[in-house]
Structure formats: structure tokens, C-alpha cells
Amino acid sequence: MEKILCVYCGDLFDPSPRHKDQTACKKVECQRAKKAAWQRHKIKTDPDYRFNQKVCQRRWTEVHPGYWQEYRKRNPEKVERNVILQAIRNRRARSKGGDEKMDLFPIAKMDASKHDNFEVLGQFWMVPVIAKMDALKVNLLKIPVLYP
Ligand SMILES: [Zn+2]
Asked: How does strand 12-13 pair with strand 136-140?
């Protein structure tokens, strides 16, 4: 049988004759990525599944109090990324007319400190608006002028 390309790692692999339309190789990380992609799709398209996931996550959080606080302390870059992505989700929801819901359940603190001398330098997340791609972390640095 002809080898096919894994959509997650890009390696060629021997497809199983018992599984038609395989997209992922046997590697644990590719199987995990495949399952995560399936779950994201299922949550978007199946309201019952979405509801059950929410109930399970809430139960898990009750059994593990303080987990998310610790997680945010351990991963400040994830917090930063989430703040940015949430601002984008809020903006999208607002443009779709979700204002009332946003006002009732504000998710992110929006009154963060403001600077008058704002420079576009530092770490940013580039978030594709049209294409379905992962966000990309970029660093914008000031390059000193050596020979003015
Ligand atoms: Zn793979």
C-alpha cells in the first residue's frame, strides 16, 4: 500500500488497511492533535456534546480547586495570549451584536493601565482573521540607528 502524508507532522506513514481516510500517523502527539481537532469540531457543531463538555469541565474544576490559578501563575505567557485572544473574541462578538451579553458577563478586565507614550515594541500575537491558522507569537524590537 502506498504511504500517505500525516497532516500533523508531515511524515509519510503506512496507512492501516482497516482504517479508511487516515490523516494522522501513529505518533502519540499526532494522535493527540487529531483528537483535539476532532473535539474542537465537535464542540463547534454539536450542542449536546458542547453542553456535556462544559458540565464535565465544571465538575473537574470543582474537584481540583485552585488548579487554574496555579496554571496561570506557572504560565504567564498563556495568560497574556488569552487576554489578547479574548479581546479579539469580544470585538467579534460585539460586531455580531452581542453587546448585551458582553455587558452582563464581562470576561476580561478591560481597564488595564494606559500609556501615553505607547510604542509598538514587545511581544505580540499575530492572529489570523480570515484563514484558520494558529496564532503566531512575534517580537517587535527597536533596532538602534548605528550611523545616523
Ligand atoms: Zn504524524
From this structure: unpaired
